[in-house]
């Protein structure tokens, strides 16, 4: 039985402001020592007063604009009252009636609202004891609520992935799900029935899998003629299933009321034109398609990583600056840069555990290296060695090429010396080649390339190797041979 599934998401995002939402404490998710970034305000001491963090408000407004939402002309904070050990004040400052943003859309899914609140502390359960770390208490938290427009686990995942990308492009949050900087809650119902909430999903995979599991589970219940219970469920990653956490017999009463210690925000006067919204992922996809003529999968690899795509673009313009045309055949040069970047440079970075911030190769230097390959000043084999040296030393490619003597060469006597050395050291390969094994020749070519650090012209090398394996005798020699 195929039942219609209705899914809505509630996504919490930790904003990466310098300080917390209502006090001057550092907002540092990397702080390892507990209860360092705390003060009387975020600890909820009596007599303290909160102050609104402007950067956090700006971040939410940027997100609202990026998703095409309507910025409220008047917004207000409310108190959401409940007791829990990670909530020192006994209430959370949130937004209920007057969120900062209403409406908007992403991937065809309508956004209901985006509001701003504060995060709670963190509980740590150790054996008999529970510990609490308040470093996270009061960190700005943006909540994005969708309309129930989603109908499958896959499209929920796509939505969440695109949302994370936008957070990163706007540079308002790391969006790292495994670190809890972006947390998804799924609401799901079948055939207009009771909706179940799934909490604590900390990976895209968990979002998709938990929905698929819930669709099956609820279908099973409905098929038997039973009713789906109104409850909150958790996700068991190892077991690959959801489990009941708490039954929702009646709605919580949070006794929301306007936060008396904070002024309402009058946003009607705000000049939104002053908000620099950068190019968004969807716009970049279109532009890259037009400008670079790459395949969709290639564009996606670039767009998914903002630093990678910035590097790529800058390298391409350096390449053009070196006086090389990208056009005709356009894709050749662009693909050369794309391939070197996504396989060689990224490969080397991964093997050395280097992040973009630690990379000593500038797009300028990288673009120059690509230009040297294009102009056939060096061969691709040598280029790989140069790139490695560039990463290790941070020096310009032309300096490395000169120092290491890696300019390509077709100089016959140079190649011949190397070829003869390799032939004399590899009798087996030579005799295999004589027996007709083509791979043996490739092996010998590889050995000479290594011997000469890749600077040998491969076409010339092939001819010289063959000539030295099957020496063509001069006519005088042939004459001697006959006579002898
Ligand atoms: P609640 O008041 O129970 O939190 P809301 O109406 O505020 O419910 O919606 C919370 C989330 O649940 C939203 O993301 C919304 O899209 C989603 N949602 C609402 N109704 C349904 C439904 N019938 N099935 C699945 N999700 C739903
Ligand atoms: Mg809810
Ligand atoms: Zn504080």
TrEMBL record:
The gene is gatB. NCBIfam families: gatB (TIGR00133), PRK05477.1-2 (NF004012), PRK05477.1-4 (NF004014). Its EC number is 6.3.5.-. It is an enzyme of class 6 (ligase). Heterotrimer of A, B and C subunits. It comes from Candidatus Tagabacteria bacterium CG03_land_8_20_14_0_80_41_22. The keyword Metal-binding does not apply. Belongs to the GatB/GatE family. GatB subfamily. Keywords: ATP-binding, Ligase, Nucleotide-binding, Protein biosynthesis, Transferase. It catalyses: L-aspartyl-tRNA(Asn) + L-glutamine + ATP + H2O = L-asparaginyl-tRNA(Asn) + L-glutamate + ADP + phosphate + 2 H(+); L-glutamyl-tRNA(Gln) + L-glutamine + ATP + H2O = L-glutaminyl-tRNA(Gln) + L-glutamate + ADP + phosphate + H(+). This is Aspartyl/glutamyl-tRNA(Asn/Gln) amidotransferase subunit B.
């Amino acid at each position: 039985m195929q039942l219609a599934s209705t899914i809505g998401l509630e996504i919490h995002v930790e904003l990466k402001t310098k300080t917390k939402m209502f006090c001057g404490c550092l907002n540092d998710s990397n702080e390892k020592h507990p209860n360092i970034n705390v003060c009387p305000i975020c600890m909820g001491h009596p007599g303290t007063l909160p102050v609104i963090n402007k950067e956090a408000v700006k971040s939410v407004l940027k997100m609202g604009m990026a998703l095409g939402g309507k910025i409220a002309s008047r917004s207000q904070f409310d108190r959401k009252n409940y007791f829990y050990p990670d909530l020192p004040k006994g209430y959370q400052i949130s937004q209920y009636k007057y969120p900062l943003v209403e409406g908007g859309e992403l991937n065809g899914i309508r956004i209901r609202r985006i509001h701003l609140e504060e995060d709670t502390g963190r509980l740590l359960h150790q054996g008999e004891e529970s510990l609490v770390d308040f470093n996270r208490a009061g960190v700005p938290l943006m909540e994005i609520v969708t309309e129930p427009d989603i109908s499958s686990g896959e499209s929920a995942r796509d939505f969440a992935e695109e949302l994370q990308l936008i957070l990163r492009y706007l540079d308002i949050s790391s969006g790292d799900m495994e670190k809890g900087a972006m947390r998804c809650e799924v609401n799901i119902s079948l055939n207009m029935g009771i909706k179940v909430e799934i909490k604590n999903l900390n990976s895209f995979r968990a979002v998709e899998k938990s929905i698929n599991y819930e669709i099956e589970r609820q279908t099973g219940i409905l098929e038997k003629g039973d009713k789906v219970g109104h409850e909150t469920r958790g996700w068991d990653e190892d077991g690959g299933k959801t489990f009941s956490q708490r039954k929702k017999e009646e709605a919580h009463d949070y006794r929301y009321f306007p936060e008396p210690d904070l002024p309402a925000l009058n946003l009607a006067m705000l000049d939104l034109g002053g908000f620099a919204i950068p190019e968004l992922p969807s716009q970049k996809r279109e532009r890259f398609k037009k400008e670079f003529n790459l395949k969709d999968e290639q564009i996606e690899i670039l767009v998914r990583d903002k630093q990678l795509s910035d590097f790529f673009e800058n390298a391409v313009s350096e390449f053009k600056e070196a006086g090389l045309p990208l056009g005709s055949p356009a894709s050749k040069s662009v693909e050369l840069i794309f391939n070197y970047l996504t396989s060689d440079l990224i490969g080397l970075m991964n093997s050395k555990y280097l992040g973009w911030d630690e990379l000593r190769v500038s797009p300028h230097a990288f673009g120059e290296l690509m230009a040297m390959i294009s102009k056939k000043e060096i061969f691709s084999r040598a280029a790989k060695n140069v790139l490695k040296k560039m990463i290790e030393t941070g020096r310009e490619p032309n300096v490395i090429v000169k120092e290491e003597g890696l300019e390509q060469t077709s100089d016959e006597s140079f190649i011949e010396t190397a070829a003869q050395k390799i032939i004399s050291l590899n009798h087996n390969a030579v005799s295999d080649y004589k027996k007709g094994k083509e791979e043996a020749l490739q092996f010998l070519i590889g050995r000479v390339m290594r011997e000469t650090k890749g600077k040998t012209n491969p076409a010339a090398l092939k001819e010289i190797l063959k000539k030295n394996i099957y020496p063509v005798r001069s006519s005088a020699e042939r004459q001697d041979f006959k006579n002898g």
